[in-house]
Amino acid sequence: MQDADQVPVEPEKSSPNEAPSLSMGKWLRTNLFSNWANSILTLLGGFLALFALRGVLNFVFSENRQWDAVRTNLRALMTLSYPESQYIRVWVSLGFVVGLAGVSAGLWANWGGVSVKRVSTWLMGAGGLLAVCVLVREPSVIIGSDGKVVRTVEGSLQRESFLDAMVDRSSWWIAVVVLLAAGILLRNRFSGGSRRAVELPVTSVIFTGLGLAVLSLWIAPYGHYAFISETKSYVAESGRTVAFSTKLPWTVMLALLCGFFRVGRILQRSDYAGVIKGASNLLWLISPLTLFWVVLRDPALDYGHVISTDLPMGLAFGILGGLVLWSLTRTGVGEAGRLVATMLLGFAVFNWVAAFFGWYPMLQKARISFLLLAFAALLAPNFIGELAKRRQLVLGWLGVTALVHYLATMINTPSTVELQSSEFLGGLGLTLFVALIVVLLSFPLGVLLALGRTSKFPIFRMLSTTYIEVIRGVPLISVLIFFSVMVPLFLPDGMELAELAAVLTGYTLFSSAYLAENVRGGLQSITKGQYEAADAIGLTAAQRTGFIVLPQALTVSIPQLVGQVISTFKETSLLAIIGLFDFLRVANSVIPAQSEFMGVKREGILLVAMIYFFFNFTISKYSQRLERRVGLGER
Question: 379 with 393: CB under 8 angstroms?
């Protein structure tokens, strides 16, 4: 019986546009040494690349580098001051994300296969690059018996000979041999006839790589480096494997990923696959909020207040709002429904104005609920008629109300986490959270702004255009400073805006303006015939936009949208300017301020750059794969 992940062995069908496979010698002559000009450029570029590579390697492996500063502060770089006694919450949150990623990959991803030829090329390329790195790196300095470096008579550092350096790097040469041998064996094993078309499942390649990485934690002597918070001391023990408290959680993460991926594959073949996919998408939307403000904060709930105030208010808004929406979706409601929706919107806006001037007290969640009800009432005309559509609107309102009131209660409840600073999370965790929340919130807002700017209604077009042009004309750092410093000055007494909430609000408004222009470019690519065809089959304006226009516009805008996501992630480094301890600030300010590593910056900043590159490169490659799947630029 064939395994579900295995790809059958079939002769590869050559595409008319696919270039024929060339040997290495022919490929070099065709692409790099086709004429004397290309040959000179190739040699010059190769020399510059080797020179740059040698400089990077000498910098990384220099005896002057204090990598212990990074090794012993990895926890600070990831989560900053989150207490070690409650660190299990971080692993639980990461485990939930990993498990959800495994289920989603099993449900959605059409992974396909990767040819054995390509895998062998990767292995041999990695082996060749590693060999070059070992050769071009300068020999290490000689350390005397007293632990100090040995210097020549002229005072320069005395280095070992090239031969001794190659012998000392024997472990690296073993890795080179293993990579080259694996690549050559794969190439020879599947080199003839139909075997050239054999493909390995992408899941097998990914999980094998992750498995080897986790296995290395148990056997490779990376060293044991840690900061002991109880004694305020650092542990730096080379030649050992990493701590058990690091090895075990990552092993569990890999097991969760593999196990839930298999569960996703099983659920993909069930009769409820569509419902499960919808549930997984919903979990991706709400999990960042619940994990950050509920799991990591661990709010100390006052159940008496919850039962007496929070729960009745949530039920009242859910039930009464559902009844209002049910009545607004009756057949024949006509202009009366739009009039009621407009009145609700005016009342919701009036509540915020009253809060600003302090006319009467009202809980924040009540103001938010009235505003959401007004927006739902404005959408009600699109659900008039069929019973199923009316029920869908009411159920959606109940779900949104429950989620908003639940999160509002959790956010406004004090945390039980013992904090050493005003923010309970920092480092890479804060960077990823801000980037993810900004992308999730700015996407729907940006789509609405793009639709408003292309609308036929002058008021919507004017407001959207003004907003986009004003925001795009101001630097991001100015927006962040305005929301962090200026906005709290205009809030009424008793109303506060937390630093993180201010950052998320300002960054979301800024990112949505740029994203709106990206979506507008996709909307302008839709031909007039698409609109006419939608009108001809009797679709409403909302149906035409949701089912015909937006899917095509978003598909065309994939490169621009991914570029905006990458830009959003990179620009989180500006959080340090307004006082948040993001990933970059920890490496640039926190670690160099420690007495043991006073002034050590370069090592941490280099690690930050590598991690930024890893995330952005991964997003870019996935974007390219997505473009190929949807046929962007091909049809």
Answer: yes
The neighbour count for residue 609, using CB atoms within 10 Å, is 12
pLDDT tens, 448-502? 999 989 888 888 889 899 999 999 999 999 999 998 888 887 776 666 677 888 8
Amino acid found at 621: K
Residue 435 is part of which domain span? 419-635
pLDDT of residue 15: 41
What band does 232 get if pLDDT is binned at 50, 70 and 90?
Answer: low
Please say which residue of 413, 441, 474 terminates a domain: 413
- Do 494 and 603 sit in the same domain of this protein? yes
**Single residue among 396, 413, 430 that ends a domain in this structure:** 413
Residue showing tokens 């050769």: 135
Q: Is residue 283 one of the residues assigned to a domain?
A: no
Euclidean distance between CA atoms 56 and 50, whole angstroms = 10
Helix (H) or strand (E) holding 203: helix 202-219
pLDDT tens profile 295-354: 998 888 888 989 998 999 999 999 999 999 999 988 888 788 888 888 998 999 898 888
Question: What is the Cα–Cα distance from 80 to 495, expressed in whole angstroms?
Answer: 28
Same domain for 532 and 585, yes or no, is: yes
Residue 499 maps to a domain: yes
Number of domains in the chain: 2
Show Cβ contacts of residue 137 under 8 Å, excluding neighbours closer than 6 positions.
Answer: 54, 57, 58, 61
Residues forming a β-bridge with 299: 415
First-to-last C-alpha distance (Å) of the chain: 38
Looking at 193-197, 374-378, 560-564, which range is the least confident one?
193-197
How far apart CA 392 and CA 415 sit, in angstroms, is: 36
Token readout for 578 is 């307004």
Please indicate whether residue 200 or residue 42 has the higher confidence score (pLDDT).
Answer: 42
Which one has a higher pLDDT value, 37 or 196?
Answer: 37
Q: Can you give the pLDDT at residue 6?
A: 42
- Residue 144 counted as domain residue: no
H-type alpha helices, 269-302: 273-290
- Residue 66 vs residues 61, 347, 490, 557, 591: alpha-carbon distances, Å: 10, 61, 47, 44, 12
Listed in order, strand segments (DSSP E) in 383-528 are none
Mean pLDDT score, 593-617: 91
**CA contacts within 13 A on the Cβ side of 618:** 7
Long-range contacts of 324-328 (CB under 8 A, 24+ apart): 324/373, 324/377, 325/373, 325/376, 325/377, 325/380, 325/393, 325/394, 325/397, 326/390, 326/394, 328/377, 328/380, 328/381
What value does the mean pLDDT of the chain take? 85
Domain shared by 376 and 500, yes or no:
no
Residues 469 and 535 in one domain: yes
User: What pTM did the predictor assign?
Assistant: 0.85
Note whether residue 140 is domain-resident: no
Q: What is the helix (H) or strand (E) element at residue 419, kind and residue range?
A: none
Q: Quick one: 490 and 608 in the same domain?
A: yes
* Distance separating alpha carbons of residues 452 and 466, to the nearest angstrom: 11
